[in-house]
Amino acid sequence: MVRLITHNLLACHAKGCTTNNFPLEFKDVQVVLRESEFNPEFLRGFMPKIEWPALLGAARELGDTSLPDQLPEMLDDDFLKALHHVLLEIHVEEGIMICPNCQHNYPILNGIPNMLLAEHEIA
């Protein structure tokens, strides 16, 4: 499933595409919201792995403005619930992710991103 927790870890790996290849941009997406169990301990543990500007940009690209511009110093329950919603409950079902550098398209079908590259695209 393409959720923003996954999207925040994906970069383009096409041959020669080594700079400005993250984050991938969304285009023509269909978004579905699916509730999931709130786990504040998981979120606190995952925080160091999050690229905040990329997450914030992707969330806003998908129409969610619940996260603050800056990562707060205090990770209270209100913030963690908003983070949980953005990372785990927003699902991109259909669409395309596009590399901002080489413009390579990664299609998303039935919630699954196709990150495979053709042989001539492999670095």
From TrEMBL:
It comes from the Eukaryota. Gene3D superfamilies: 2.20.25.10. InterPro entries: Trm112, Trm112-like. Pfam families: Trm112p (PF03966). One of its GO terms (biological process) is rRNA (guanine-N7)-methylation. GO terms for molecular function: protein heterodimerization activity. Belongs to the TRM112 family. Interacts with TRM9. This is Trm112p-domain-containing protein.
